[in-house]
Amino acid sequence: MRTNNFSEQDKIIEKDSEVKEHTEDLKKIISIRIKELRKKRNNEDINNKWTQEFVANAIGISRSAYALYETGDNLPSIEVLLKLSELYGGISVDYLLGKQDHPFVDTDDIVNPEYNKFISLLNRLPEDKKEKYIYMLYGVVMKDELD
């Protein structure tokens, strides 16, 4: 019986460790992306200096709270991510979270919800399976074009 308890405890500890690791990775991704966006906007906007304080005031938080997001020491809430998305002209929250490579949603994706559903399912797969299915789909499309 005790071995089962230890086994269950080990699973919980392992899962907790995975969650912490994922959270740390997420903090790094977000910190890099928001810092890059702010610096890029600072270089483009001649009317405003896009400092940490400017961004923090624009989204209604303190500069020190925002600084913790940029350094990757704290994870922003969904509310903060949505405000940043709006501040930067409607960039995708998925971009801030590292789930997509481009800051803006392609309007073709919005028009075709089936495409979005497919991409969402594909993105949930492990990398090795994702690659496999992409090659399979590519083969089907190429065959269809040749017919």
Automatic annotation (TrEMBL):
Signal peptide region: none
Pfam families for this protein: HTH_3 (PF01381)
Tree of life domain: Bacteria
Keyword line: DNA-binding
GO molecular function, one term: DNA binding
CDD domains, A to Z: HTH_XRE
Domain HTH cro/C1-type positions: 34-96
SUPFAM superfamilies for this protein: lambda repressor-like DNA-binding domains (SSF47413)
The keyword DNA-binding belongs to this UniProt entry's keyword annotation: yes
Descriptive protein name: Helix-turn-helix transcriptional regulator
